[in-house]
Amino acid sequence: MAVSLLWLGSASAGLISGRIFDAEGTGISGAQILVREPQANFSQTAVTADDGSYSLDALPPGVYTITVKKLGYTDWIQEVAISGDGSGSVRLDLQLQSSREQTVVRGVEELNPNLFYVKLDTNEIIRELGRRGADVQFLREFRSQENSFGASYGYPLRTLEWAKPSTALPNFHGSLYEAHQNSGLNARSFFTVGKLRPWRRNEYGGAVGGPLFQNRLAFDFAWTHAQDSGYINGNAQVPLATERIPRSSDPRTNAVIANLLEGFPNEFPNLPHVSLRHLNTNAIRDIRSTALSTHLGYRPNATDQLVFEQRFLDSTEQPFEFVVGQNPVTFLRPQSIHFTYSHPFSSKTLLRLSHNFDRLAVFLDATERYKNLLSTLGINVVPEVSFGHDLTRLGPGPSYPRRRVENRFHFSGELNQVRGVHTLAVGLWLSRLQTNDLQSDNNRGAFSFGQDFGRTAVENFLYGAPTSFTLAAGNLYRGFRNWELASYWQDTIRVKPTLTLSIGLRHEVVTAPAEVNGLTPIPFGTDANNLAPQFGIAWNPGRGKTVLRGGYGVAFSSIFPVLYQRVRFNPPAVQVISTDNPGLLDPLRGADLRRSGLNLISPDLVAPYSHLYNWGVERQLPANASVRAGYMGSRTIKLPVNSVTNRARPVEGIPTTTGTINQRRPDPRYLEISNIMNGSIAYLDALQIALDKRTGRGLTWNVRYTFSKAINTTGTQSFANISGTGHISTVEDIVRDMKSLEDFDTPHSFTIGYRYEFPWGRGPHGIKSWFPGGWKVSGTTTFKSGTPAHVHTGGDSPGFGNVDGVSGDRPNLLNPKILWKSLDHPDTSYAILADTCTRPGQIGPDGVARPYMQCTYFDTNIPPGGRGNLGFQTFRSDGISNWNLALEKDFLLREPVTVRFRAEFINLFNHPQFERPDDEIAFEPFAKIINTANRGRVIQFLLRLEL
Fold first, then answer.
1. Three-state SS for 946?
2. Cα separations (Å) of 419 from 13, 88, 285?
3. Which of 121, 376, 589, 682 could form a disulfide with 636 if both were Cys (CB 3.0 to 4.6 A apart)?
């Protein structure tokens, strides 16, 4: 929900005007607007025009509650003060969000369902940033009441929700709806072999609300249920027919390998031209979720209001398993209870008090099929097994099982007052966070098979020869507690009818967390010096049609639990044990169990912060059009970064192999040491041009073009990466090789949104409304540059890496001409990156065998402890070319019963957006594109009855 308050009207008091629009900027016609001032017992209504504009004038002074309602959109309620001293002209532009009952055409393709991610912390934001790039926003003003950290990228990380005021409508209202998707209507994606197997999604629900007790109490209740079930089509890397028989000389080892092989589908690769072991297959997935919400608004007298909001979601996902256990079972249950009390002391002074309780319960675990994979051998715990990129991993990942219960208690108060030309706001909020979490880190154990011993990863698996084994042992359950505090002051000054200034200051405090049982000490202290000034200006020179805007603000992030919880994996409470070249049956034999990995956090760790700034020009054009050109920029300082130390180094007299990594570490007490500290800076600069046409014979459209560049000094440590993990330096003491484009950098973004209402047959009632006429078509067309891509060696063994015990080495570039090439199609990506490759020990095109891997454009000739010369993020992945379309019509059966039918076509032309190519040279799929980021064309129908 975007709100723009412009105190730049004429001198006449008592006017509220503006425009109501959707997510594409298209005006929403027919929206009902009700303004109510309880003290004066005054109310007025309006309906938006075709372009979404509205105007309410002759309003007496007071604090007004404005309610906006439109079928298919979430109600919006806003309080605005009107003074009686000639400064009461308010422009209020509102962007309504679609109600949960329908998919809005936003120029966004549906994520390919065969790409699994855990909806926890900021994972969803990171996934969308990597797939679509940043949604760069022009922030019209900086207000100290709001924390804008991440907002310029389109994803504000820290927002406070007030329970919305309630306006009692004169009558009861209700709705019922059903939305349906079906594989029989959808198109195949690019790599699909054969017909789509049955899959369907049904979502249905209803809402009811109205006044109670002589209009003192108003209620709204909504309930929805969604079920997504059937076959998911996707891709996996599976063994060839010749790779299904164990090759170890030990029968017991062969038995374990044979059982693990049963985790792969009983199918052989069917797309060898894509990659050697590529299988396109299908697997069952079932997602069920139920959501409900309640809203109560009580007025004890003519002025005060107490609002109660409750939300609840219960979601269960039985994941698809192309390979047994590759995704975890997910149980997700967020819920919230919000109270807000509003008391106007006068027509110019308003007090709001709020108490919020938010709770998140999450449980993720390996599937039962995976847990029983070795049960016939009497082995009850199945470890994680990875093969680089040659085969799809066995197991959901090292972080499972995972159980988290997170409670946040939030208290806030705000006082607003209009004083002459000043609109003042002061506020305070206090938040208590309780996190109870069981988080795994290889507590089931993890085998890694790599390019080692002169064999491929698959061959080493069949011989039972892992490169490494990692195990975390100890009590992994922790309970952390901490406080967050913020206070703010804001003054919006109407210097004169054509000039408005805004000045604000925000102060934030984040206390150091404490573990309730004293199991894990936290080294950093309270971060209390976070002052965030805000400034803005809006100038209308000559009272004309041009407005100049500029602003500057500072926004602070926080120190999130996912960052500091890493210290739970430290000795003596927890031992993280790693062995090199272990046996498959007894991987800890001969291991030094006294040595452990270590996770350190800097004692100087503080919350990151952003400097935000922009300026722009807005101009009203003839024929209800407008144009805006603006620059927006940010510098985000002190982002967390992970520096890995105690890496293995070359030691005279000790062979430099993967089997001697732990012998060659400088500090013999520990294994790998991870250091989290403030150490990264992110840069964003963008120019955006926007053109809006509000109305013209039933047609409304808008155009947005954004040219931007996003850079980070340490690879992938962006504003959304709150864990501090990600890409790390290839060597211990040098970080300059990490500066690169952000993972979501998209230089060019062009979007067109449009809505057209056919001119014939508007407004008929009864049976006439069923005939052609009154149909609306809307859509969005999006073109975006691809996000950056990179290349790694894919191994750490001699001939593939620097043998320091840390993966992520980058190769040597042999042909600089290929830099910044677009890797945007399966038919061309391999030729651009690889062409031909010779593995260590093989005879190359020149008849010479080398001890390292060499491709036409890269080699892995990296000295022990050294690094390659290739930079990070030096290529581009496939961009976005997407068309979404919707057709809808409202059928008026009889007053006040309306039926809406809506058909949506997402990815209308079935255009694939390809995933990044495989980025690890050591493995067979290198440089090959093996999946799409989006689905094929999806058709969805919605039917809604409104009473």
1. strand
2. 15, 11, 59
3. 682
Q: Which helix (H) or strand (E) holds 257?
A: helix 251-261
The two three-digit tokens of residue 127, written as one number: 């996934």
Question: Do 56 and 15 touch, CB atoms closer than 8 A?
Answer: yes
Pick the CATH number of 2-95 from 1.20.140.10, 2.60.40.1120, 1.10.472.80, 2.30.110.10: 2.60.40.1120
**What DSSP line would sit under 733-763, residue for residue?**
S--GGG-EE-TT--SEEEEEEEEEE-STT-S
Q: Per the structure block, which two tokens stand in for 263? A: 């985790």
Backbone angles phi, psi at 806, to 5 degrees: -125, 125
* Residue/partner pairs of 692-695 with CB below 8 Å, 24 or more apart: 692/25, 692/625, 692/626, 692/627, 693/623, 693/624, 693/625, 694/19, 694/27, 694/51, 694/52, 694/53, 694/624, 694/625, 694/626, 695/27, 695/49, 695/50, 695/51, 695/624
Indicate the Cα dihedral angle 321, 324, 326, 327, nearest 10°: 60
Beta bridge partners of 325: none
Euclidean distance between CA atoms 402 and 691, whole angstroms = 47
**Contact criterion met (CB below 8 Å) for 142 and 504:** yes
Do 927 and 918 meet the contact criterion of CB atoms below 8 Å apart?
A: yes
pLDDT for the residue 95: 62
Stretches where the chain sits below pLDDT 50 are: 1-13, 24, 84-87, 99-109
- At 82 the pLDDT is 65
Q: For position 512, what pLDDT does the model report? A: 95
Q: What is the largest CA-CA distance in the chain?
A: 94
**Residues in Cβ contact with 273 at an 8 Å cutoff, skipping those fewer than 6 apart:** none
In the sheet that 788-789 helps form, which strands lie side by side, from edge to edge?
788-789, 875-877, 822-823
510 in helix, strand or coil?
strand
Q: Please tell me the distance from the alpha carbon of residue 904 to that of residue 610, in angstroms, as a whole number.
A: 39
Q: Which pair of structure tokens corresponds to residue 698?
A: 């039933």
- Distance, CA of 16 to CA of 35 (rounded, Å): 9
Q: What is d(CA 248, CA 227) in angstroms, rounded to the nearest whole number?
A: 46
A 10 A CB-CB count for 38 gives 18
> What single string gives the DSSP state of each residue in 604-645?
T----EEEEEEEEEEEEETTTEEEEEEEEEEEEEEEEEEEEE
| Amino acid at residue number 648 | A
> Distances from the Cα of 223 to the Cαs of 207, 312, 314, 859, 940, in angstroms?
6, 10, 12, 58, 20
**What is the number of other CB atoms lying within 10 angstroms of the CB of residue 668?**
12
Write down the number of H helices and E strands in the chain.
Answer: 6, 44
CA 301 to CA 304: how far, in whole Å?
6
CA–CA gap between residue 862 and residue 730 (Å, rounded): 11
Residues 6+ apart with CB under 8 A from 858: 791, 811, 812, 813, 814, 833, 834, 870, 921
On the 0-12 / 13-18 / 19+ scale of CB atoms within 10 A, 684 is buried
pLDDT for residue 867 = 87
Burial 99-118 (b: 16+ CB within 10 A, else e): bbbbbbbbbbbbbbbbebeb
Phi, psi of 235 (to 5 degrees): -130, 145
* Tokens describing residue 522: 């936290």
CA of residue 431 relative to chain centroid, distance: 23
Residues in the chain: 947
DSSP 363-410: EEE--HHHHTTTGGGT---PPEEEBTBSSPPBSS-TT-SEEEEEEEEE
In three-state secondary structure terms, 597 is strand
249, two tokens? 């000389």
